[in-house]
Design brief:
This protein is an alpha/beta fold. The protein folds into two domains: 128 residues, Alpha-Beta Complex (Aspartate Aminotransferase, domain 1), CATH 3.90.1150; 211 residues, Type I PLP-dependent aspartate aminotransferase-like (Major domain) (Aspartate Aminotransferase, domain 2, 3-Layer(aba) Sandwich). The strands form three sheets. Strands 2-8-7-6-5-3-4 form a seven-stranded mixed sheet, sandwiched between helices. A three-stranded antiparallel sheet has the order 9-10-12. The chain has a two-stranded parallel sheet with strand order 1-11. α11 packs parallel to α13. The radius of gyration is 21 Å and the shape is globular.
C-alpha cells in the first residue's frame, strides 16, 4: 500500500467527531444521545403509509418549499427567512462554508458541542475557544475576546450543551450587537425550555447577524430522519439556500414527513411537557442519590459525581453500560467527574435510578450474577 497522503494538511491532522454510541445488536436503555423518549407524531406514520412511491422517480423539490412554508407559519416569519437542511449539522457546515474564510477565526465557548471545532478545522479556519464560568455562564469579556480575534462567526448553543443552562434573550441581543461577525444560536434543545415566552425568531429575522439553528431530531422524535432548518434574515439565508447548499439536499420522503411532524404542534408540545415533568422528577431522584445536578432547560441533565462517591463518573458510566444502560461520559477536563443523562420515559428513568443506586452502594462495576 502506498504511503503517500492525499488529504489536505488540515484534514490529515484532524481527529474526527465521536458520536454517542448507537448499538443495534442488543436491547439497551439509551440515555446518551438526547433523542426523544417518545415517538414522533402519529400523523407521520399515516404519511408514511400513504406516501406515493411513484413520486420517487423524480427529483425532490430542490429548496423544500412546502416544509419551509410550514416552518415559516409555525414561527410567524417569511419563507425567505427559512432554510431546510440535512439535520442541523448541514446548516453548521453551510454557515462555515458560506461566511468564514480559510484562516479566519470562529468563536465558541468551552465546553460546547464538539462538532463545532471539527467543522471549523475542515474549513481550515481557526478556533477561538473561550472558557465558560464555573456556573456555565458566559464570561463578562466574551464579546470583547470575539471582537479582538475578529471572529467571522460565533457559535452559541442555547440551551447550552452539556450543562442545559439557558442564556436569556437580552444577553444574546447585546452579544449580537457587540460583535462584528455572525452569531449562530444553536437551538437544538430549545423546545424543552420551560418559559414559553423565550422566542428569538423575531430578534433573528430582524437582525443583521443572527441565525438560529433548529432541528427535528430532539423535540419531534425524528433523529433517524435527519432534518433541520435555519431561521435568520434573508440576506444570510439566501446565499446558503441558492449558492452553497447541496442540490436536492433533502429527499422527498424527508421533506414530507418533516412537514407533517412540524405541523402537528399540539402533539409535539404534549411531548415537550412530558419531558419537562420527567426532567424535574429525574433531577430530584439523582440528587437523592447524592449527585449534584445542574438546573437544565434541555432534555438532559448534567450530574456531577462527588469525590466521596466510591465510583468515579467514568466507572459509573462503565457500570451502567454493563447493565445495558447508556449515558454519556466526556473526557474533557471540566467534565471528567460528570455524566450527561438524557431524560427518558418514567420507566427508563426509574431503571436508571435503581442501577445507579446499586452501583454507588456496592462500589463495584461488576455486573450482578
Amino acid at each position: 500500500m502506498s504511503s503517500k497522503r492525499f488529504e489536505r494538511h488540515n484534514i490529515a491532522k484532524l481527529a474526527g467527531y465521536v458520536p454517542g454510541e448507537q448499538p443495534f445488536d442488543a436491547p439497551v436503555i439509551k440515555l446518551n444521545t438526547n433523542e426523544s423518549p417518545y415517538p414522533t407524531s402519529p400523523k407521520v406514520q399515516d404519511a408514511i403509509a400513504n406516501f406515493a412511491i411513484e413520486g420517487l422517480r423524480r427529483y425532490p423539490q430542490p429548496t423544500a418549499d412546502r416544509f419551509r412554508a410550514t416552518a415559516a407559519s409555525v414561527h410567524q416569519v417569511a419563507r425567505e427567512n427559512v432554510i431546510a437542511t440535512r439535520g442541523g449539522d448541514e446548516l453548521l457546515r453551510l454557515l462555515l462554508t458560506t461566511f468564514v474564510d480559510p484562516g479566519a477565526c470562529v468563536g465558541m465557548t468551552d465546553p460546547t458541542y464538539s462538532l463545532y471545532p471539527i467543522l471549523t478545522a475542515i474549513q481550515d479556519a481557526l478556533v477561538t475557544s473561550i472558557p465558560l464560568e464555573a456556573d456555565w455562564s458566559l464570561p463578562h469579556d466574551f464579546s470583547s475576546v470575539i471582537t479582538a480575534h475578529q471572529c467571522q462567526l460565533t457559535f452559541i448553543v442555547n440551551p447550552h450543551a452539556p450543562s442545559g443552562r439557558l442564556i436569556d434573550q437580552e444577553t444574546l441581543r447585546m452579544l449580537a450587537s457587540e460583535i462584528d461577525g455572525i452569531l449562530v444560536i444553536d437551538e437544538a434543545y430549545v423546545d424543552f425550555v420551560s418559559d414559553e415566552a423565550h422566542d428569538l425568531t423575531q430578534l433573528a429575522v430582524n437582525s443583521d447577524n443572527i441565525v438560529l439553528l433548529r432541528t427535528l431530531s430532539k423535540g419531534y422524535g425524528l433523529a433517524g430522519l435527519r432534518v433541520g432548518y435555519g431561521i435568520g434574515p434573508e440576506h444570510l439565508i439566501e446565499p446558503m439556500l441558492h449558492k452553497t447548499r447541496d442540490s436536492y439536499n433533502l429527499d422527498a420522503i424527508s421533506q414530507q414527513l418533516a412537514e407533517v411532524a412540524l405541523a402537528d404542534q399540539a402533539y409535539a408540545k404534549s411531548v415537550w411537557e412530558r419531558v419537562r415533568l420527567s426532567r424535574t422528577d429525574l433531577c430530584r431522584d439523582l440528587q437523592a442519590l447524592g449527585l449534584q445536578v445542574f438546573a437544565s432547560e434541555s432534555n438532559f441533565l448534567l450530574a456531577t459525581v462527588p469525590p466521596e462517591c466510591p465510583l468515579s463518573a467514568k466507572a459509573l458510566y462503565e457500570g451502567l453500560k454493563a447493565r445495558h444502560i447508556l449515558v454519556r461520559y466526556f473526557s474533557h477536563d471540566r467534565l471528567q467527574d460528570k455524566l450527561r443523562i438524557t431524560v427518558g420515559t418514567d420507566q427508563e428513568n426509574a431503571h436508571l435510578r435503581h442501577h445507579l443506586a446499586a452501583l454507588m452502594q456496592s462500589g463495584s462495576v461488576s455486573t450482578p450474577t
